[in-house]
Amino acid sequence: MARAATESKAKLAAAAKSPHGKGTAAKRGATPRVKPIELYYWPTPNGWKISIMLEECALPYVVRPVDISKGEQFAPRFLAICPNNRIPAIVDPVGPNGRPISVFESGAILQYLGRKTGKFYPRDERARVAVDEWLFWQVGGLGPMAGQANHFRRYAPQQIEYAIDRYTNEVNRLFGVLNTRLAKRDFLAGRYSIADMASFGWVKLAERMGQNLSDFPHLQRWFETIRARPAVKRALAIRVEAASAVDIHDPKVRAILFGQRAR
Ligand SMILES: N[C@@H](CCC(=O)N[C@@H](CS)C(=O)NCC(=O)O)C(=O)O
Description:
The chain is α+β, with helices and mostly antiparallel strands. The chain has helices spanning 13-17, 45-56, 76-79, 106-117, 125-155, 161-182, 194-204, 217-227, 230-236, 241-244, 251-257; strands spanning 37-41, 61-65, 89-92, 101-104. α2 (45-56) packs across α9 (230-236) and α7 (194-204) crosses α8. Glutathione binds next to α2 and α4.
């Protein structure tokens, strides 16, 4: 298996403090040291999904920042793990049959970690189908639509009214679907699961997509419940200094992130 090691110089202040973060796995005295999962990460809604799941499952992990503003997602060693040049990805040194495995695509990673740990991804087929429905709904719908809304509202060089309206309206519709679903249940598939973790980060950025969470009271209640979970707080506390310094108006950053074509 190709080993990727796209590590930027970003400091992970909070990750170092996290019980499952960088540099802490060695301190567990008598028990043999478990090799941590490597999380190829940048602090975005797709990255948060996996840091949340790793924290929820109390799995040892180490954060490998992939600075997407500098083009590290195109480094050959990262592409060997994720041919789609997108974060997140993981390398689990102890995968099936005890051998390393790499996984890309946030939904596939969540399912893998759910199967590995038996947590937040029920085994019962009926319950699992419900989780899968909402997981795929997020990766195929909410994520891409919210991404486009954010792009046309905040990053596009011109304010194109048609594009802004189209994607803002679609996110509004999707938030409405979530709100209706959550009117009669605590979480998307009944119990807290990987499906909730997948949607959480996008709801967190509601304002950027032109949405007012108070218009969606059930969704807001769900969001606050998840945000208050200790594991979620730890995941969101991971700081990547280089990410806070990214200037989306910098022509060099824009040339890397926008207008990508087949290579
Ligand atoms: N379908 C992918 C989407 C991942 C994705 O879009 N990641 C963004 C950050 S949120 C990224 O890596 N962007 C890098 C780029 O645009 O070059 C998943 O769910 O994992």
